[in-house]
Design brief:
196 residues; alpha+beta; 53% strand; elongated
Length: 196
């Protein structure tokens, strides 16, 4: 066996080294800048990691007497799968919130929470994000710092169709109860803790 590297072999090696950069430009839709992409058999897989801080922002949830403000640190680990034609077929985002809390802007009371979830979008039409069915699993737990009791717990699994219709729900889902069915009762203990 020859120990010399031929020009043809150098060309093949360079093509493999340069392939991930060339692939990213041809993907539909292209991945955000924080992803790194590479070939995996006939498909392309992109991985990304990012962390950011959410500054105080008023949430879509409010208590009877006051709005709720959210803030925290977010770490995301994301994966995208593209088929042999370069079209996205699935994306997965694992998200963890730390140093996070909801607060009452009127009295300054806070309720810390932990959140870990995974969102998976499976595209019915490769490359078309509007065709995605979204599955979300995880937990979001709020603990009263005074009593150390859990005042809100959202855990389980949901599946939404590409038209936004809830197709499946399991576990404790107070956000679903509020936003889809208009039932705010799941937030009563949290609001009481923030109001005192």
């Amino acid at each position: 066996m020859s120990r010399f590297i031929t020009p043809a072999l150098v060309g093949m090696l360079m093509a493999l080294v340069l392939a991930p950069a060339a692939l990213a430009a041809d993907l539909n839709p292209p991945p955000p800048d924080f992803y790194a992409c590479g070939p995996a058999g006939v498909q392309t897989i992109c991985h990304g990691h990012r962390s950011f801080h959410e500054d105080p922002v008023v949430t879509d949830v409010s208590c009877p007497e006051f709005p709720i403000v959210d803030q925290g640190d977010v770490a995301q680990r994301a994966i995208r799968y593209y088929n042999a034609d370069g079209n996205l077929t699935r994306r997965v985002i694992h998200e963890t919130w730390t140093n996070s809390f909801w607060s009452n802007p009127l009295n300054g009371n806070t309720i810390p929470y932990t959140q870990r979830d995974t969102t998976t979008d499976d595209l019915g039409v490769p490359g078309d994000l509007a065709s995605a069915t979204e599955t979300q699993t995880g937990e979001n737990v709020y603990t009263d710092p005074v009593t150390h009791q859990k005042v809100l717990r959202s855990t389980g699994r949901t599946i939404f169709g590409s038209d936004g219709t809830l197709e499946f729900s399991a576990g404790q889902q107070p956000f679903i109860d509020l936003f889809l069915y208009g039932d705010p009762s799941g937030f009563a203990n949290l609001c009481a803790a923030l109001a005192r």
